[in-house]
């Protein structure tokens, strides 16, 4: 098989993968702009014949949706900041030092990924109720931090391990202290990893549903996933148009956050800095 045929097959596979990933988003956008009559019609159209903004108006008029969006942003941003700040020193220790502390850290990560969420949510509920953090955004932030931290540590320590230790030794020979080496050498090279860790933490906290469903009880504390679930009626009747519009609006913060961090996500930034 010639190299040209292989390249064509690669592009076809990539195009198919992009269609597979992009079609649900295209369908969501299309449904958000369709009228109720067109949504309930037996004729399926990929694009709306008569676009309308009625679904967006209905979604925004629904009580508590904007408040839930604010709650989700507060929880997601706070979780991202806390997880990132804790992960930096923890990941560095895991990547650079061998000993009991690293063994404990790795064991913590592995054990935390073993248990299904359903097994820990009930005792977690009683613990939070005992300290008065049920139906509280602070309690939810604490839960998301503990839930997201293990994988964030594991992901970030891989980025730290990819930074050659020779660079730190060279900085030490030049007279730089350990703290200055971390600030001026390691931290700039770690920016792609920090961006990836922050993105993972934000998306995990912003989209999480199960913990929020169990721990949040009053509508004033609802996050967006819980608020969007109210578009499903008691008899299973779904307000498809407003739900699609609400889901589309709720995805905007994640898209904006990813756009702000996308330059830092390029792993070529790391390799280029090391080669220089």
TrEMBL record:
Disulfide bond as UniProt keyword: no
Pfam family of the protein (one): BPD_transp_1
InterPro entries: BP-dep_ABC_trans_perm, MetI-like, MetI-like_sf
Membrane topology category: Multi-pass membrane protein
PROSITE patterns documented for this protein: ABC_TM1
Location in the cell: Cell membrane
Domain ABC transmembrane type-1: 69-261
Major localisation: membrane
Keyword entries, A-Z: Cell membrane, Membrane, Sugar transport, Transmembrane, Transmembrane helix, Transport
Keyword Transport among record annotations: yes
Transmembrane intervals: 12-33, 73-94, 106-131, 137-156, 185-206, 239-261
Family statement: Belongs to the binding-protein-dependent transport system permease family.
Listed name of the protein: Multiple sugar transport system permease protein
Source species of the chain: Microbacterium resistens
């Amino acid at each position: 098989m010639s190299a040209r045929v292989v390249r064509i097959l690669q592009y076809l596979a990539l195009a198919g993968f992009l269609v597979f990933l992009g079609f649900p988003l295209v369908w969501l956008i299309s449904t958000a702009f369709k009228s109720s009559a067109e949504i309930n019609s037996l004729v399926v159209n990929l694009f709306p014949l008569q676009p309308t903004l009625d679904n967006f108006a209905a979604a925004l008029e629904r009580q508590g949706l904007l408040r839930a969006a604010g709650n989700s942003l507060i929880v997601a941003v706070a979780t991202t900041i806390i997880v990132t700040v804790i992960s930096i020193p923890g990941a560095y220790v895991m990547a650079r030092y061998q000993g009991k502390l690293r063994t404990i850290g790795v064991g913590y990560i592995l054990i935390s990924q073993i248990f299904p969420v359903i097994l820990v949510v009930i005792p977690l509920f009683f613990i939070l109720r005992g300290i008065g953090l049920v139906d509280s955004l602070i309690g939810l932030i604490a839960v998301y931090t503990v839930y997201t931290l293990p994988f964030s540590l594991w992901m970030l320590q891989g980025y730290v391990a990819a930074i050659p230790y020779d660079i730190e030794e060279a900085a030490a020979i030049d007279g730089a202290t350990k703290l200055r080496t971390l600030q001026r050498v390691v931290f700039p090279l770690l920016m792609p990893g920090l961006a990836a860790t922050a993105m993972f933490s934000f998306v995990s906290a912003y989209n999480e549903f199960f913990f929020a469903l169990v721990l949040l009880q009053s509508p004033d504390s609802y996050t967006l996933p819980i608020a969007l679930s109210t578009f499903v009626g008691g008899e299973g009747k779904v307000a498809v148009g407003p739900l699609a519009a609400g889901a589309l609006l709720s995805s905007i913060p994640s898209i904006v956050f990813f756009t702000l961090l996308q330059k830092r996500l390029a792993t070529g930034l790391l390799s280029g800095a090391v080669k220089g």
